[in-house]
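Exercise 7. Given the encoded structure of a 551-residue chain, write a plausible sequence.
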């Protein structure tokens, strides 16, 4: 009997341990032109995309979005996953959302009713107002440019308050190119006024891509019942990257140019600064996807990115993006210096082959401090004017006396060697302290550089770049820890606010990175840095005092 009760208890526990999956719809009565939002939710974290293939029989999948919902309680951290799928019916009548498997749990089926739409409402060719859409290609590389042209044929002028909404394609970026064009034309022998608008679409995932056509919203009038008109849904294939550089960058473009402007001072000395300006212009990519050009890692110079400017404009070939970096360079010593070359490997989508743009290594000279120059000038003067006669004998006598004094000093030093062994040990300790301080200064400089790069990424609201820069900064902020991922950063920081912001960053990268804002992440990182600086002030002062006493 006890065994039976224990088995039933274990069975009940195992049953409740399964995550519950739920499916809901925003509405169940629609027309053939309407879109439908299906929401799936499960009380667990689901990283892999569920199998949505059962939906393809009756619906087109226009896009999907995953959301992680996290909460903290006394029992620990609880996470649920929500998927929102945008659907369009393939036919009319009574359709069904089938059972879907989510975290090993099945959802319940849901029935919907799809009504017919009249030809005038559907905006079919030949109606008083209709769409004609076209693409420049039926396949496109990942992150490459797809040109979508929408033409609205209308017999009467469009009202001033008519609203044209851009097409959507899942998580892809969509940019409106230039102003709308207005002209006249014919369709099947009938005259029409034509309004044309072009868009640039940049896919973010490989595989089939469904492009939901643009929508034209018209006000209701006594003569017209049409309220909204939507263009045709098109499908393209998004191809895998054909080539990646050794740095992991993938730049599919129509054209790419790399230019620089710099002029180091003629009499540059240690501590002096000069600026270098780099400009990258790319046709066929958004500005936010352009890579950083300058590396701030340098052992002999302090390199600081002072400003990054991103601009976009439209051309007949699509979107033209420009990234301009203004860099400050401060040499840390004297002699000959070299800035490394800048190499960019990109893919010419017109020729369908890899190409290369580069700037050569730049060299500059830093003069020695004036004191060294004066000593060298004095020595050169001595060599140019050799002494002779009595002055020569006097110089020989002085050098002989100096040699005797030096010998006596050496003998004195040698006799006191054993006595100074303890002092030598103290000097070794001081040297070790100096070495540790040099390492600390080098690490602090690397931390400042990576923090500055992270700040730029956050100011630009560039989620993917911020993720990479956040990992680089954390590796320098916690050099004693092994950090390779955002999860490692959360373990090192032990900060609940930063945990939430990292979770939000991951979520936006998975869904739509264009909506991410980096100001809160920047505030949290800045608070961590200021807190550490406050904790280090007292030990640093105590260390300086002990060092002065030892001296």
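Solution.
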């Amino acid at each position: 009997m006890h065994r039976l009760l224990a088995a039933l208890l274990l069975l009940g526990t195992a049953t409740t341990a399964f995550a519950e999956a739920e499916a809901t719809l925003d509405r169940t009565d629609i027309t053939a032109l309407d879109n439908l939002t299906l929401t799936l939710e499960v009380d667990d974290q689901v990283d892999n995309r569920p199998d949505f293939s059962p939906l393809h029989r009756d619906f087109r999948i226009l896009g999907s979005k995953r959301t992680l919902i996290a909460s903290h309680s006394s029992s620990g951290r609880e996470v649920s996953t929500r998927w929102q799928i945008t659907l369009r019916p393939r036919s009319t009548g009574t359709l069904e959302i089938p059972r879907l498997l989510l975290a090993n749990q099945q959802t319940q089926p849901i029935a919907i009713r799809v009504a017919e739409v009249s030809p005038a409402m559907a905006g079919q060719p030949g109606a008083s107002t209709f769409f004609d859409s076209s693409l420049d290609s039926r396949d496109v590389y990942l992150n490459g440019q797809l040109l979508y042209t929408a033409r609205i044929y209308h017999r009467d002028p469009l009202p001033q308050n008519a609203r044209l909404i851009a097409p959507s394609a899942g998580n892809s970026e969509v940019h409106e190119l230039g102003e709308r064009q207005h002209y006249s034309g014919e369709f099947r022998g009938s005259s029409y006024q034509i309004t044309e608008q072009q868009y640039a679409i940049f896919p973010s995932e490989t595989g089939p891509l469904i492009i939901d056509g643009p929508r034209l919203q018209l006000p209701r009038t006594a003569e017209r019942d049409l309220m909204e008109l939507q263009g045709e849904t098109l499908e393209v294939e998004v191809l895998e990257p054909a080539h990646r550089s050794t740095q992991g960058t993938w730049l599919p473009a129509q054209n790419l140019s790399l230019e620089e402007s710099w002029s180091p001072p003629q009499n540059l000395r240690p501590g002096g600064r000069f600026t270098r300006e780099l400009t990258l212009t790319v046709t066929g990519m958004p500005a936010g996807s352009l890579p950083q050009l300058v590396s701030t890692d340098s052992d002999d110079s302090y390199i600081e990115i002072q400003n990054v400017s991103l601009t976009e404009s439209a051309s007949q070939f699509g979107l033209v993006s420009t990234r301009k970096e203004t860099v400050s360079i401060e040499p840390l010593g004297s002699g000959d210096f070299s800035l490394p070359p800048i190499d960019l490997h990109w893919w010419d989508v017109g020729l369908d082959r890899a190409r290369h743009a580069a700037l050569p290594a730049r060299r500059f000279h830093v003069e020695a401090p004036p004191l060294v120059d004066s000593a060298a000038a004095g020595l050169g003067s001595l060599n140019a004017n050799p002494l002779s006669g009595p002055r020569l004998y006097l110089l020989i006598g002085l050098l002989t006396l100096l040699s005797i004094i030096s010998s006596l000093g050496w003998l004195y030093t040698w006799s006191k060697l054993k006595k100074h062994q303890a002092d030598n040990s103290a000097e070794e300790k001081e040297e070790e302290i100096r070495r540790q301080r040099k390492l600390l200064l080098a690490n602090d400089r690397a931390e400042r550089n990576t923090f500055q790069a992270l700040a730029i990424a956050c100011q630009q609201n560039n989620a993917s770049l911020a993720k990479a820069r956040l990992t680089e900064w954390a590796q320098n902020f916690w050099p004693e820890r092994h950090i390779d991922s955002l999860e490692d950063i959360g373990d090192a920081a032990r900060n609940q606010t930063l945990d939430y912001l990292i979770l939000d960053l991951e979520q936006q990268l998975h869904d739509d990175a264009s909506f991410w804002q980096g100001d809160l992440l920047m505030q949290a990182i800045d608070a961590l840095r200021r807190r550490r600086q406050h904790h280090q002030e007292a030990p640093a002062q105590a260390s300086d005092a002990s060092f002065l006493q030892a001296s």
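Remark. Confidence is low (pLDDT under 50) at residues 1-18, 372-379, 547-551. Students should compare their own answers with the one above.
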